[in-house]
C-alpha cells in the first residue's frame, strides 16, 4: 500500500513538473513555446502567462511549459540564456521544482539539444529582450531573441483589435460586365501567433501572424 502511494505521488509530481520537449529541429535552431504548442519566430513577443516552470496546461505529453531554445545539435551541455541587461540567467542542475528552491524570477535548465527559460515568479522589473546563444549542428553559435513582458505590458502594446466576425464584400470595378460579388469573412484569434481564417466564396484560407519586435525594445511591432 505504501509503495503504491509513493508511486502515485511520484507520478503526480512528474505531471506537475513536466519534462523536456521531443521536437528538436532537424537543422538550425528554434524557439518553442509549449504552453501554446508553437514554434515562434526570432524576436517574437510573449507574455508572462505563456511560460512557466511546470507543466501548467497539463498536456498529454507532460511537457514543461518553459520557453525552450532548441538546436539540431543534440549536445547535453549547450545553450545560455541572458537577461535584457546582458547578465546570464542562473542555470540549475536540479529539478524544476527543486524543494531547496530555485532562482527567481527566472532560471534556465539544460537538456540534450535545448535549454529552458523557466519563470518562477512575476516578470515586473525584468521585462525586455531575452537572448539565447546556442550552437547549431555545425557547432557554430547562433542567437535567438524574444521579448518577454508582463501580461499588462504586453496588452498595452498589442496594436489594433479586430472584430472576430468581420465581414465585407468586394465589387468588380469593370464596366464591361456585370460585376461579381466576392464575400469574405474573417475569424481572428489572439496570439502569438494570431490565427486568421478567411473564407472566400466558401473556400477557406488560414494563415498565422506572429508579433515580432523591430530594431529592439523601443520600436514598434509588426506581424509576419
UniProtKB/TrEMBL annotation:
Signal peptide region: 1-18
Organism of provenance: Amphimedon queenslandica
Sorted UniProt keywords: Signal
Superkingdom, taxonomy of origin: Eukaryota
Record protein name field: Ig-like domain-containing protein
